[in-house]
User: What shape does this take?
Amino acid sequence: MHKILKTVAVLPALYWGAASAAIDSGAVNLPADDKVLYILGQDTSTLRDYKNQVGTSAPVPGGVTLYSSLLPVEVNANSAPADASLYVSGIEGPPVDNSNGEVDFAETLADYDQLAGGDSVALAVGLYLSDEWADCGNQPLRAIAGTGDSDVGSASDPQSLTSQYRYAIDRMLNYFKNDGRPVYLRIGYEFDGPWNCYNQDFYKQAYRWIADRIDTLGANNVATVWQAATYPDNGDSAYDFDAGNNPYQHYSDWYPGDDAVDWVGLSFFAGSEYLAYQWSCQDGSKPWTVPDISPRALQDTLVQFASDRGKPAMIAESAPQGFDMAAKTYSCTASRTNTQSFASSQAMWDAYFVDYFNWIEQNADQVRAFAYINTDWQSQGRWYCAPGASACASGYWGVTSLQADTVVLNNFAAEVSGSLYATAGSAVGGGHTGGGDGGSGDDGSTNDPEQSAYTSQSIPGRIEVEAFDSGGQGVAYSDTDATNNGGALRPNEAVDLQATSDDAGQNLGWTEDGEWLEYTLDSVVADTYDIDVRLATPNTAGNRALTLSLDGDPLATVDVPQTGDWQNWQTVTVPAVSITGGADRVLRLGIIGGSFNVNWVEFTPVANDGGGDGEPIDPPAGNDCGDFGIAYQDDTTMVLYHADEGWSADWKYLCLDSDCRSATLNNGYYTRAVSGQLGQSYSVEFKVQQTAAPGQFIAGPQTFTFNNACTLP
Assistant: This one.
């Protein structure tokens, strides 16, 4: 799914490593020499303590784990762009601490790069996408997936939740891309943990959208991680949390696809002795205390699942849950009513870590990274559980800081000092596969810039001028000087941007003759459009214009009127411009004359008698379309449909080649209109998910051909 990574000067330790026989040679960010990457986490507070208390007296980890969420800008102080309603926690703005540890990407990465002697350590990121705190509506997933539901809106509306979630993800991915270090992005981590209440279809759709954006933006140093919870107790069957019944099928049902997944991840909070420790206080009257399957069975199943697909596996989260390594005690995780003491520090080590490292080493041909959570959970409000408590709101976690016990720390250091493990300075890398040299990689001697979309944009819709492509001077844009004269946004680019009084965004300023900017568009729908351009200048009209072209073909030349001042804005409309459709098209804005400002360009379909290019064909009337298939609307628009059977459904979706979107009920049919090519065959699937009986209904996937033989009433 991915392109080859070209290593850069700030990453002296990155190159293509040799893969084991069970892993595809093009695996992303695979440690070299068949090693297992050692990662430490999981928050800035924890990692700061380890740096100060242990530092380089033990092997420095080859990577660190941090977490991020997409939060409303009003929740905390942040540095998100003015046109953003969401910010990326831990990255945009000051440190965030929600009673579960402070998160500050800049501090932690700088600290551990310094510990690594100037090398860039790897970064594992848990991206939280749940809204379990808001009745499990799966709104973040639906927004990212672009379902079009009324509460998330359309991707063509820049203020919709869909646009804002996607905008935030694009900024996060560009941050990773520009930083350059190997990143392991755990998208919606622990997808099948009942506490996250992810909907299976929404999760897979959102995951695939993010994976596709990694490719589109050229973030070749970012590997996707699909992480299961390996939680041994089945949850709510309505959310498909039933790993104990048929684990392999369970994981197959949740899998987003080989083209979207780079690594298979798992959690390891209990091992083979789970009944003696984490699950030692079972109570039949409390079914959540009685496991349905062993954690080891789930861990082994995931390793087999990864092996069958040629994917490396990662222990993405791990610690001996319920152990207090400072007090040398343990308790079950559902309560603290049975706290017991270990006989010694070595006994505490033996109770979890011996099995842990043995399992890694027995599966080292597939398990190529492990992330340990080195945290005093009891010091963090979210995880605190009072001694003797009969129940703990978030379970009992304990104190799993290695430095809390000298014997444990020394034993751990001895393990990761072995030749199997990749610590700081070890070679870790390998960019995204999918082209060029057949997977042999790049020697790192060059770093030719590649043009890629800065954010998701399409026609119809508004193109904000500041969202020009990534790629730099001569690739994504041409600017006559190397300085961003406004400097308000994207200060490392030469394009001159400033905050505008026209709206909450930025405008292009300091324009000069011959400059240009390009915008890679996800899609363009064939139609006739009115093109609106927002312009301002105090200078007299004449010899000043903005040109628009699409893939090199001219669309319009817009003369710039005198508006009275640099922030006195006027909309100039070019009516009825016919535009052909397609994907991955490039819009160019060119400057003639200069000395004017540009805010945005908007493409609005002209109301007509059918749309599309050319004269519409009168379709045959009265055809029987049947219950399920593809109907004709015009030569470039087809309608996916399924007959209504009386569902009082919560979610209704029609899927085109696995891309699922909300369906609309019209005249007895659930429908979804999409662009299509006459004579082309497409895979269509219909899904209904409702909480009331009969529950879920699925038709297809089934292949249909788009023609004009069938029209709906």
DSSP finds nine helices and 38 strands in the chain. Residues 161-179 form the longest helix (19 residues). The longest strand covers residues 582-592.
